[in-house]
């Protein structure tokens, strides 16, 4: 579990009009599970494409087991057999059955007999719960099942490293969990991995190390704990902070209530907010915004709902600002709604402020409370 697998030195990649990688320096050791995060357009996908040499670098070198894979004449097809790559959308061969998809490369490239490759494929399918799908075609399967098979297919080549580029972002939310579980199992088996993801809770659970990419470099590199709880550099801090804040603006009595609930749910999933806290936040949103505020605000109503999750306390701080004359929404109104709000929140405070949203109610939702 030690030894250097990858060494990247002064890697630069320039496209006409964009230089996503200016100067990337990085060492990946065997057995590491690395999550790569950062704003979009910061070269995360470009970095993975460089590692398996889908594109030539503008400058710099990449060593795979101390061999320079960027050197002219390097046999890239040999490298690709050692690297498993999983993209956002499952690119299985649609004209082959599941088991043929998995067997094809081991038979063609590793020289396994069909019998041997087939037996191994069945064994691996069983491990991801898809044994009975061996003879199905990809389009007969759900997105989550297809992505699990894409992972099995890559693993069938016994790669030395697996690269994942947002492996769950094209999936229906109900299928994210099953794919993450498979990726986690692969990580636990000791396979070296680099995973680009926007799902911070997943990044945190799975990785031993997190790279934050920005400004064309690996801007911050450290244990998940450091990056998510105590980022050392300014841009990392801003990025992490922004992720943990959700703002919803309501300016009509016929606003998209379902859409708002979905946003709160997605925010919770992304940030690893405990499900009972998410439920309390949705309930509070419903009672405060729909039941207590909207019927009593002047036309047009304006409400800004802002919430921030603090993982160390497992608490969410909510701030609701609304228009109209000074008016504490918790002073009067439907008794049941008021009781629900008091039941799910603590530290409920009202303040009259300046500006057009002159009323502010703030409160905290804590895990132990709900
Ligand atoms: P990320 O994965 O972090 O969102 P990418 O690596 O996809 O970022 O892209 C980084 C930048 O490089 C973006 O500005 C993108 O438009 C540009 N880029 C990526 N691939 C190409 C390409 N093949 N040709 C031109 N520009 C590209
Ligand atoms: Mg990308």
Features:
single chain, alpha/beta, Rossmann fold, Heat Shock Protein 90, 2 domains, six-stranded mixed beta sheet, five-stranded antiparallel beta sheet, 37% helix, elongated, binds adenosine-5'-diphosphate
Write the layout of secondary structure elements.
Blueprint: E1 4-15, E2 18-29, E3 33-37, H1 44-51, E4 59-64, E5 67-68, H2 76-82, E6 83-86, H3 98-110, H4 114-127, H5 143-155, E7 161-165, H6 173-188, E8 192-196, H7 200-206, E9 209-214, E10 217-222, H8 224-229, H9 234-243, E11 245-250, H10 257-271, H11 275-293, E12 303-310, E13 315-322, H12 335-344, E14 346-352, E15 359-366
Parallel strand pairs: 3-8, 3-9, 6-7, 7-8
Antiparallel strand pairs: 1-2, 1-4, 4-5, 9-10, 11-12, 12-13, 13-15, 14-15
Helix pairs in contact: 3-4, 3-5, 5-6, 10-11, 11-12
The chain binds adenosine-5'-diphosphate and magnesium ion (MG).
Magnesium ion is lined by residues 44-45.
Q: How many β-strand stretches?
A: 15
Q: In the residues, how many domains can be counted? A: 2
Ligand roster? adenosine-5'-diphosphate, magnesium ion
Low-pLDDT windows of residues: none
Distance between the termini: 43 Å
At CATH's second level, what is the architecture of the largest domain? 3-Layer(aba) Sandwich
* The CATH homology group name of the largest domain: P-loop containing nucleotide triphosphate hydrolases
| Range of helix content | 25-40%
Order of the strands making up the biggest sheet: 6-7-8-3-9-10
| Oligomeric status | single chain
Would you list the SSEs in sequence order as H and E?
EEEHEEHEHHHEHEHEEHHEHHEEHEE
> What's the CATH first level of the largest domain?
Alpha Beta
Biggest sheet: strands, sense, closure?
6 strands, mixed
| Helix/sheet category | alpha/beta
Output mean pLDDT: 93
Query: What is the number of helical segments per DSSP (H or I, 4+ residues)?
Result: 12
The fraction of residues assigned to DSSP E strands is 25-35%
| Whole-angstrom Rg | 25 Å
3D shape:
elongated
The CATH topology of the largest domain = Rossmann fold
